[in-house]
Amino acid sequence: MTSLALRVLILLALLLAGPLITVLTGRVSLSGDWRTASRATTGLAPDAAATREAVIQVYGARAFRWRGAFSVHTWIAAKRRGADGYRVYEVVGWHGNKSVKSGKAEPDRQWYGAQPELYLDLRGPDAEGLIGRIEAAVKAYPYEGRYRTWPGPNSNTFTAFVARRVPELGLELPPTAVGKDYLGGATFFGPSPSGSGYQVSLFGIAGILAGVEEGLEVHLLGLTFGIDPLDLAVKLPGLGRLPSPPRNGNHVASSSP
């Protein structure tokens, strides 16, 4: 075996070890039917009818079947002050020329059997002031009607785009949000999704990111290796962040009277 072939095998092993462990430990199922998979709510979102203050939340859950070994699907939910329901903003790949979905929905539903995780929870006047900007960013999303599971644009490209347009969210997306680093076909440099740093990305396939919230990330074939010194965490393909929760600064709650 040549030296180059050995290096390629080692690289593939590093890239695929995490996704394989994710499957073997039962965090992702390779079987199931999307038509019967659960979309039940999980209680992570405050009851809209009983919560007067504005709310912004960002969620993610493992993608369906084999894709979940590598990536999560992310979405954004928002409720204005006094509203009795949430609007959910996300991108899906089965809506043809209308990939952006925006409408009233339960924000904390399972994603076809996968439990959602809450990445950001912002409430009160700060949230109220950002909802209009989120809506404007959703309308400005440049890849409407385009969807590509890898390397993007996909659901995580959408969430990251909105986050970059509204950096006050300070949203740190997980390393398993494959597609978050896709900046387009002609853009190779931009802010990180959290707005706390910058990144260089070559079509979402290879790149590097440095930011206060994200730490240092290296992207290869859409997968992420990284270290977050402030959280004392490492980031690995498939496995995500270890240990899992980011520090509380990414989960902001400010109550209004």
SSE layout and pairing:
Blueprint: H1 3-24, E1 55-62, E2 72-79, E3 87-91, E4 100-104, E5 117-123, H2 125-140, H3 155-165, E6 189-191, E7 197-202, E8 206-211, E9 215-220, E10 223-228, E11 233-236, E12 240-242
Antiparallel strand pairs: 1-2, 1-5, 2-3, 3-4, 6-7, 7-8, 8-9, 9-10, 10-11, 11-12
Describe it.
It contains three helices and twelve strands, in the order αβββββααβββββββ. It has one domain (22-250). The strands form two sheets. The protein has a seven-stranded antiparallel β-sheet, with no helix packed on it. Strands 4-3-2-1-5 form a five-stranded antiparallel β-sheet. It is α+β, with helices and mostly antiparallel strands. It is globular, with a radius of gyration of 18 Å.
Which keywords apply here?
257 residues, alpha+beta, seven-stranded antiparallel β-sheet, five-stranded antiparallel β-sheet, 12 strands
Structural class: alpha+beta
Give the total of beta strands.
12
Structural domain count: 1
Strand order of the largest sheet: 6-7-8-9-10-11-12
Shape: globular
Order of helices and strands: HEEEEEHHEEEEEEE
- Which stretches are poorly predicted, pLDDT < 50 over at least 5 residues? 247-257
Mean pLDDT: 92
User: Sheet with the most strands?
Assistant: 7 strands, antiparallel
Our Rg estimate from Cα atoms comes to: 18 Å
Cα(first) to Cα(last) distance is 69 Å
